[in-house]
Design brief:
It is built from 34 helices and 30 strands. The protein is α/β, with parallel strands linked by helices. A seven-stranded parallel beta sheet has the order 9-10-8-11-12-7-13, with helices on both faces. Strands 6-26-30-27-28-29 form a six-stranded mixed beta sheet, with helices on both faces. The longest helix has 36 residues, at 654-689. It is elongated, with a radius of gyration of 32 Å.
C-alpha cells in the first residue's frame, strides 16, 4: 500500500486533495485542493482508488488579460483557510480583526496556560478579542474544549458569534435546554463530556446542584463574560454574586485551565472587586504591590485595558513606528450629543401625582408605629408608586393594581431584598432579566383607595393628558426629519408597550415602530429587531423606531440599525444610561455623532433632582476622562432615598421638607460627589499605571505585516471584488467608498454560490448587494474583507473557473497570459507559486502537526535556464502593468508554450525560496511565543516540495520586443 505524507497531493473521487497530518496508513484525512475545513473528508485507500496527483501545469492555449494574474493570486489568497502566518486560526475565521485586537492574542500566546483579564472599553470588541484567543488555542491544540459563562440573555448571541465568526459550534446549556441535553446522554456521562464546546448560563450553573458536575468536567478553556458580576467586593455583595464567585474560584483552581475574564468595568469603583478579579487570574496578583515596578510587570502580562482614544489611530508614527504605512483608523463615533427636554404635568396628572404622594406619605408615617418590617414594606411600595407614576399612566395603573413584592416579606431585611431590585437601578444588579416588570404597590389595607387612583391613571393615557408622551412625539419627529433612527428606552414593560402603541401612526407613513421588552425571549428580541429592519427596508425615506426596556441595555449590539437614544424614563443610576447609549455608540456606527435626548419632568419633584445630581455629573466625568466611571451604588441610593423622603414630606410638612432639602439632600449629594471623584481619580490613576505595555506597537506591526503578506491587504480585496464582479457581468454602482452590485446577470454558478450567504430571495429578485469598506456591517451587507462569506464565495468561483479551462462563461482569472507593455525593457516572466509547509507546534497536550499554505509571486528576466531573478517588490509591481499593444493570439500561445516547456529549470530557485519562506514562518511563530522558552523550542517548519506553479505570465516590451 502506498504511503502518502502530510501535505502531499492525491487524487480521489474525481478531484485533487491535500493530505492532512491526522491521516494514518489505512485512513487518509483529506482537504480538497483550495477547499475549506468544512469540506474535509476521510478516505480509506483499501476500498477507494487513491493515487498521487501532480498539479497540472497551465495550458498555453488558455490565455488571459493583464488582470488575470492579480485576480488569480487574490482569489487564491482569499480562499486560504490554513494560511502560512504566525496565527493558525486567522485564515479560517469569518472576521477580520483590527490590529489592536491582536494585542490580547499575542499576550495569550506568550503564556503556556493563558490567564487574562480583558477590560477594553465598551464597543472596542472584547468578544472578538476573546474569540480570537479561543479559536487560536483550539486550532493549535492547546485547548480541546471551550465553555463561555455569560448571562442567559446573552447566551444565544455568544453562540451565534462563535459559530458565524469563528466556526465554533457551541451547545447552549440553559435552564430551558438542560433537560433535552441530558436525555441524549449515555449512562453516567456528563453533558460537558458529550459537548466539548458550550455556552453556559452563569446563573443556571452557579447553583450547587449543577456546579460540581460542571467543575468536574469543565473544558480546559473558559471565557467569563461580564466578569465583574462574578466577584465579591464587600459584605453588601448579593448572594447571587457570592455564588458566582464561588463557582469561578473552583474553575480557576485548576492551574492548567486557560481562563479569560472579560469586562469593561473591572473596578466598578471598588478596589476589592478589582483585586478579586485579579486573584482569579493569578492568585499572586490579589496581594501584589501594584505600585512597584515588579508588581506592574506581573500585572502587565495578564491585564489589558484600553479606551477608544488609545486605539482610534493605531500603528502610527505616534506609536513609535518609522512611518504610517500600517496605520489603522477605527471609526468610533467621535462624541455623543446630549439634549435634555423638559415637560410639565397637566392639571389632572398633577392632581393624581399629589394624591398618590399623599397616600404614600400616610402609609410610611402609619407604618412607623407598627414596626421596622412594615416601614420597609411601605417604603418600597411608595417608591414603586412614585416611579411608575412618573413613567407612564399605564405603568401607574398596573402598579396600583398589583400587590407589592415586599408585602409578603417576613422581615425588614427580606422586604429590602424583594423590593430593591424592582425599584432601584443598581449598577451591580444580578441581571436585567425580569427587572422591567412594573412593581406592585398594593397592600392588604389599601385596595379600594389604590383602585380609585388606578381608574384615574387609566384616563390619562394619550397625548392630551400625558405631556411626556406628547414631548416624545415632538422630539422623535425632529430626529426622524434629520435622518436618525432612534431607540426609546423605558423603565417598565407597560410603559414601553404604551409608548409603542401611541406612536403608531403619529410619525409618518414610512416610519416603522416596534417594541422589545422582557416579555420576549432573548432570541425573539433579536428576531423582532431584524424584522423591524427588514420591514423598513432600504428606502432612504424609511425610518426605524425601537421602543425598548433595559432588557436591551447590555450585550446586544444595535449600531447597524440605530443611531440615536431617547431616555424616556430616567434611570436612578447613570451607569444604566451609559449602557443604553453604548448599544449604538460603538465600532460600526456610521454616524460620527450619536444623539442622546433625555426627557424629564420639571414639576414632578423627582426627575429634575436625579438629572442634576446624578445624570449630568456622570456625563461631565465621562467627558473629562474619556471613560465612564460607575457611580458608587450606596451613595447613589442615598441621594435617591433622600429625594423620595423629601417628596413624601413636602405636602403635609412643607417647612420640614424645605429644611430637609437644604440639609439632607445637599449633604448626601456632596457625599456622592466626593465618592465619585475618588472613584474617578482611582480609575484615572489605574489606567495610567496599568496601561497596556506588555506588547509594543512595533511588535504588533511585525505580525500585521506577516499576516498581510500571506492573506492580503484590504485594498487588494476591494480591487479584486470590484474587478471580478465587473468581469462577471454584475452591474456596479458607486456609493462613496462603498458600492452595490446587482448580480442578476452574472453566471448561474456565481448566483448559486452567493444565494446561501445573501439569501436566495435577494438573488432571485435582483436586489443589489451592498459592499462596505468597514468590517462592521449589518445583515444583508458584505464587508470588503477576505473573511466575509460573500467575498469568499466570489473568490471561490473565480478560482475554480480559472483552474477549469473547460468551464464555460466568463472567467476573469486565467493561469497564463502574454502582455505587451511599456513597463518592461526585456522579456520578464511572472510566476504565481503555491507553497505548502509542515508545521510542528508544541502545546501542553503534545505536538500538533499542521499543514499551511502560501501563495507568492516570483519573477525573472530572460530565459528560465539563465534567469535573472527579481526582488519580491519588483515581482508585485508587475501586477500593476497594463497592456499597451495587442498581442496576436497565436503568437502569444507559441510564446507561452516555449516558456512553460522551459520552467523545470526554475525548480532549484523555487525550492530554495520555499526554504526561505519556511525559515521566515518559523521565525514568526517563535516571535509570537517569545516569552515561553518551552513553547519556542518545539516549533518547527519545513517546506513541502515541489511547489505548485499555478500561473505563468509573460511580459514583453512593446515595438517589436523579442519573445
Amino acid at each position: 500500500m502506498t504511503t502518502f505524507t502530510a501535505g502531499s497531493l492525491v487524487s480521489a473521487r474525481g478531484r485533487d486533495w491535500v493530505v492532512l497530518p491526522e491521516s494514518a496508513d489505512d485512513m487518509l484525512v483529506l482537504r480538497p485542493l483550495g477547499g475549506a475545513d468544512d469540506d474535509v473528508a476521510a478516505v480509506f485507500p483499501a476500498f477507494e482508488d487513491v493515487r498521487s496527483a501532480e498539479f497540472q501545469p497551465p495550458s498555453a492555449d488558455d490565455l488571459g488579460d493583464a488582470l488575470a494574474a492579480g485576480l488569480l493570486r487574490s482569489a487564491l489568497r482569499i480562499g486560504f483557510r490554513s494560511g502560512a502566518g504566525p496565527f493558525r486560526s486567522l485564515a479560517g475565521i469569518a472576521v477580520e480583526p483590527r490590529a489592536y485586537q491582536l494585542v490580547p492574542l499575542m499576550m495569550a500566546l506568550r503564556q503556556r496556560v493563558v490567564r487574562l483579564l480583558i477590560s477594553d472599553d465598551v464597543g472596542i470588541g472584547k468578544t472578538v478579542e476573546a474569540g480570537l484567543i479561543a479559536s487560536e488555542l483550539l486550532a493549535q491544540g492547546s485547548a480541546k474544549g471551550l465553555a463561555v459563562l455569560c448571562s442567559p440573555a446573552l447566551a444565544e448571541q455568544w453562540q451565534d458569534e462563535l459559530r458565524t465568526k469563528f466556526g465554533i459550534d457551541a451547545e447552549l446549556v440553559l435552564a430551558s435546554t438542560v433537560s433535552r441535553l441530558e436525555r441524549g446522554l449515555d449512562l453516567g456521562q456528563s453533558l460537558f463530556d458529550r459537548h466539548p464546546h458550550v455556552v453556559v448560563s452563569t446563573d443556571f450553573i452557579k447553583s450547587t446542584r449543577h456546579r460540581d458536575d460542571f467543575v468536574k468536567h469543565c473544558p480546559d478553556l473558559v471565557i467569563v463574560d461580564e466578569a465583574h458580576t462574578c466577584v465579591t467586593a464587600d459584605d453588601s455583595t448579593s448572594k447571587q454574586n457570592q455564588l458566582r464567585y464561588e463557582l469561578l474560584q473552583k474553575v480557576a483552581a485548576d492551574t492548567e485551565r486557560h481562563l479569560l475574564l472579560v469586562t469593561a468595568t473591572p473596578h466598578s469603583g471598588k478596589e476589592s472587586a478589582f483585586r478579586a478579579l485579579l486573584g482569579l487570574v493569578k492568585p499572586e496578583l490579589a496581594e501584589a504591590h501594584l505600585e512597584t515596578d515588579a508588581g506592574r510587570r506581573l500585572l502587565a502580562a495578564h491585564f489589558v485595558q484600553r479606551k477608544r482614544a488609545d486605539v482610534r489611530q493605531f500603528l502610527t508614527t505616534n506609536d513609535g513606528l518609522a512611518d504610517d504605512n500600517l496605520r489603522e483608523d477605527t471609526a468610533f463615533p467621535s462624541d455623543r450629543f446630549f439634549k435634555d427636554e423638559t415637560y410639565k404635568l397637566t392639571p389632572a396628572y398633577r392632581a393624581l401625582l399629589d394624591d398618590a404622594i399623599a397616600y404614600a406619605s400616610e402609609r410610611v408615617t402609619a407604618a412607623g408605629d407598627q414596626g421596622k418590617r412594615e416601614v420597609r414594606i411601605a417604603w418600597w411600595s411608595a417608591i414603586a408608586l412614585l416611579r411608575s407614576l412618573v413613567s407612564s399612566p399605564r405603568a401607574a395603573t398596573q402598579t396600583l393594581r398589583t400587590r407589592s413584592a415586599a408585602a409578603s416579606a417576613a422581615s425588614a431585611e427580606e422586604a429590602d431584598r424583594l423590593g430593591a431590585p424592582l425599584t432601584r437601578d443598581a449598577a451591580d444588579s444580578d441581571a436585567l432579566e425580569g427587572l422591567d416588570v412594573a412593581p406592585g404597590a398594593e397592600t392588604e389595607e389599601a385596595g379600594a383607595r389604590l383602585a380609585e387612583l388606578a381608574e384615574r391613571a387609566l384616563l390619562l393615557e394619550g397625548t392630551d393628558e400625558d405631556r411626556k408622551l406628547a414631548t416624545l412625539v415632538k422630539q422623535l419627529k425632529a430626529l426622524l426629519a434629520d435622518g436618525y433612527h432612534p431607540i426609546v428606552f423605558c423603565r417598565y414593560i407597560p410603559t414601553a408597550e404604551y409608548v409603542a402603541e401611541h406612536l403608531e401612526g403619529k410619525l409618518g407613513r414610512k416610519t416603522v415602530v416596534r417594541a422589545v421588552t422582557g416579555t420576549l425571549s432573548p432570541q425573539q428580541r433579536l428576531q423582532r429587531i431584524e424584522d423591524l429592519a427588514e420591514e423598513a427596508g432600504d428606502d432612504a425615506a424609511a425610518r426605524r423606531v425601537l421602543v425598548a426596556t433595559d432588557c436591551l441595555s447590555e450585550g446586544v449590539n444595535l449600531q447597524h440599525y440605530f443611531d440615536a437614544v431617547v431616555h424616556y424614563d430616567l434611570a436612578w443610576n447613570p451607569t444604566r444610561h451609559d449602557q443604553r447609549e453604548g448599544r449604538v455608540d460603538r465600532y460600526g456606527q456610521k454616524r460620527d455623532t450619536v444623539k442622546v435626548i433625555t426627557l424629564y419632568g420639571s414639576d414632578n419633584g423627582i426627575d429634575g433632582k436625579v438629572l442634576e445630581v446624578l445624570i449630568k455629573k456622570h456625563r461631565q466625568i465621562r467627558k473629562d476622562l474619556g471613560i465612564s466611571v460607575s457611580v458608587p451604588d450606596a451613595a447613589s441610593s442615598g441621594v435617591t432615598d433622600a429625594i423620595v423622603e423629601w417628596l413624601l414630606m413636602r405636602n403635609d410638612r412643607p417647612e420640614q421638607a424645605s429644611l430637609f432639602e437644604m440639609e439632607t439632600i445637599n449633604d448626601r449629594a456632596e457625599q456622592l460627589d466626593a465618592d465619585w471623584k475618588s472613584a474617578a481619580e482611582r480609575e484615572t490613576t489605574s489606567r495610567s499605571r496599568f496601561a497596556q505595555r506588555a506588547i509594543r506597537p512595533d511588535e504588533v506591526a511585525k505580525e500585521v505585516t506577516a499576516i498581510r503578506e500571506t492573506l492580503g491587504r484590504a485594498d487588494e480585496v476591494r480591487d479584486f471584488t470590484r474587478q471580478s464582479l465587473a468581469a462577471l457581468d454584475a452591474v456596479l454602482r458607486n456609493e462613496g467608498s462603498d458600492f452595490t452590485a446587482d448580480v442578476s446577470g452574472a453566471p448561474v454558478g456565481l448566483r448559486d454560490a452567493l444565494a446561501p450567504v445573501v439569501g436566495g430571495e435577494a438573488i432571485e429578485r435582483g436586489r443589489p448587494i451592498p459592499f462596505r469598506a468597514t468590517a462592521a456591517v449589518a445583515r444583508g451587507e458584505a464587508a470588503l474583507v477576505r473573511t466575509d462569506p460573500v467575498v469568499g464565495s466570489i473568490a471561490g468561483f473565480v478560482l475554480n473557473a480559472a483552474l477549469d479551462d473547460k468551464a464555460g462563461g466568463p472567467r476573469p482569472a486565467r493561469r497564463c497570459g502574454v502582455i505587451r507593455t511599456k513597463g518592461v525593457g526585456t522579456r520578464t516572466t511572472l510566476l504565481l507559486v503555491r507553497y505548502r509547509f509542515h508545521l510542528t507546534l508544541p502545546s501542553r497536550v503534545g505536538e500538533r502537526q499542521l499543514v499551511a499554505e502560501d501563495a507568492r509571486l516570483v519573477a525573472f528576466q530572460g530565459a528560465p535556464a539563465n534567469a535573472t531573478w527579481l526582488s519580491g517588490e519588483e515581482a508585485i509591481r508587475l501586477l500593476d502593468l497594463t497592456a499597451d499593444e495587442n498581442t496576436d493570439r497565436d503568437f502569444g500561445a507559441r510564446t507561452m508554450a516555449r516558456v512553460l516547456d522551459a520552467l523545470p529549470a526554475t525548480k532549484p530557485h523555487l525550492e530554495a525560496y520555499g526554504d526561505e519562506l519556511a525559515a521566515e514562518l518559523l521565525a514568526s511563530h517563535r516571535r509570537v511565543r517569545l516569552a515561553s522558552a518551552e513553547i519556542v523550542r518545539g516549533v518547527n517548519v519545513t517546506a513541502q516540495k515541489p511547489a505548485d506553479i499555478l500561473g505563468a505570465y509573460v511580459y514583453l516590451p512593446v515595438a517589436g520586443g523579442v519573445a
